[in-house]
Design goal:
Blueprint (H helix, E strand, L loop, with lengths): L1 H18 L1 H20 L6 H28 L5 H6 L5 H31 L6 H27 L4 H12 L1 H15 L8 H29 L1
Helix pairs in contact: 1-5, 2-3, 2-5, 3-5, 3-6, 3-8, 5-6, 5-9, 6-7, 6-8, 6-9, 8-9
């Protein structure tokens, strides 16, 4: 399973490296979201600094939709899904590979957006370790849920519009937990719930969707 996952992840990342969709489209889109937030909110009142964590994860979530749609689109043309079903690869390995490729792209995106938040919103980072752990846990949940729902919507004609409707409500807990965990690292405000509790929620979400994807991806691939 893990060998198949590495094969699929390597294939998807090579496709992205050659097409440069992530660097030429997804990344500028995410940065543009941050810039528009800066224009929409008044930086003189400190609103941007207080809302930086939430705005960051909203930008990541919207960009993740594009990355997931791209990941599903790679398998949708020229009988690629049929070839994938007949390849003998473990469906669980295919799911892990797709999720790993999406996660790798999101981590790079989050690094660039994090630098953009510090520069544009003038925030101070007090806990790099907390931010890194939050990014890893949240990215795992987003990539797993996105890969699963991407496969669910891949066989439908309206997959481009249906995928956000399916995915956004499901990953709302990731947005909330990641925002709360990140706030403690970007501000000196104390919260009733510790960052560790929010990180635990992110870990539970990621584990649930990874486990569910390992079981359900095969039937979804066959039905698609």
């Amino acid at each position: 399973m893990f060998r198949d996952a590495l094969l699929v992840a390597g294939k998807d990342l090579r496709v992205e490296r050659r097409s440069r969709v992530t660097t030429n489209q997804v990344l500028p889109f995410a940065v543009l979201i941050l810039v528009l937030f800066a224009f929409a909110l008044d930086p003189d009142r400190g609103v941007l600094a207080r809302a930086a964590a939430g705005l960051f994860w909203v930008a990541v979530l919207l960009s993740a939709l594009l990355a997931v749609q791209r990941s599903a689109a790679v398998e949708s043309g020229d009988g690629t899904r049929d070839a994938l079903r007949l390849s003998g690869l473990d469906p669980a390995g295919i799911f892990l590979g797709k999720a790993l490729a999406v996660a790798a792209q999101l981590l790079v995106l989050e690094l660039v957006l994090g630098i953009g938040v510090v520069l544009l919103y003038d925030v101070d980072v007090d806990g790099v370790g907390t931010l890194a752990a939050t990014a890893v846990a949240a990215t795992a949940g987003l990539a797993a849920a996105g890969s699963l729902y991407g496969a669910l919507a891949a066989g439908l004609r309206v997959r481009e519009t249906l995928l956000p409707l399916l995915l956004l409500p499901v990953v709302a807990p990731v947005l909330i937990a990641a925002t709360r965990a990140s706030e403690s690292a970007l501000t000196s405000t104390s919260f009733e719930v510790s960052p560790g509790d929010w990180l635990g929620l992110l870990g539970v979400f990621a584990a649930l969707y990874v486990a569910f994807g390992l079981v359900a991806y095969g039937p979804l691939l066959e039905d698609g």
